[in-house]
Amino acid sequence: MLVSQTEYSPVQTKLTKQQTLLTIEPTLFQNVYFCFQVTEDKSVKWSEKQKIVYTAPTPPGTKKDTSLPFPPSYSPEFVESSWYQWWEKEGFFNPEQHRLPHAVDQTFSLCIPPPNVTGTLHLGHALTVAVEDALVRWRRMQGYRVLWVPGCDHAGIATQTVVERRLLRDQGKRRRDLSREEFLQEVWKWKNEKGEEIYQQLRSLGASLDWSRACFTMDPRFSSAVTEAFVRLCDSGLIYRSEGLVNWSCALESAISDIEVDSQELSGQTLLSVPGYDNKVEFGTMLSFAYSIDGHDGEVVVSTTRPETMLGDVAVAVHPDDPRYQAVHGKRCRHPFTNRLLPIITDPVVDMELGTGAVKVTPAHDYADFLLSKRHSLPRLTVIRGDGTMAPPCGQWLEGVKRFDARELVVDALVEKNLFRGKESHAMTLPVCSRSGDIIEPLLKKQWFVRCDEMAKKAVQVGWMTTMSHCFLHSDWCISRQIWWGHQIPAYQVELPNCTDTEEERWVWGRSEDEARQRASVKYGVQPEVLTLTRDPDVLDTWFSSALFPFAMLGWPQLTTDLQRYYPNSILETGSDLIFFWVAKMVMLCTELTGQLPFKQVLFHPMVRDKHGRKMSKSLGNVIDPLDVIHGVSLERLEEKVMEGNLDPRERLVAMEAQRKDFPKGIPQCGTDALRLALCSHKIQGEDISLSVSQVLSCRHFCNKMWQTLRFTLGVLVDDTARVTSPEETTPLSSMDRWICSRLYSTVLQCEQAFEAYELHTVTSALYSFWVHSLCDVYMECVKPVLVQQDDASARQVASSVLYHCVSVSLALLSPIMPFITEELWQRLRPFRPGAASQTSLCLQPYPCSSQLAHWHFPEEEGAFVLIQDVIRMARSLRAQCGMTKEKPTS
Question: With a threshold of 0.70, does the pTM exceed it?
Answer without folding.
Answer: yes
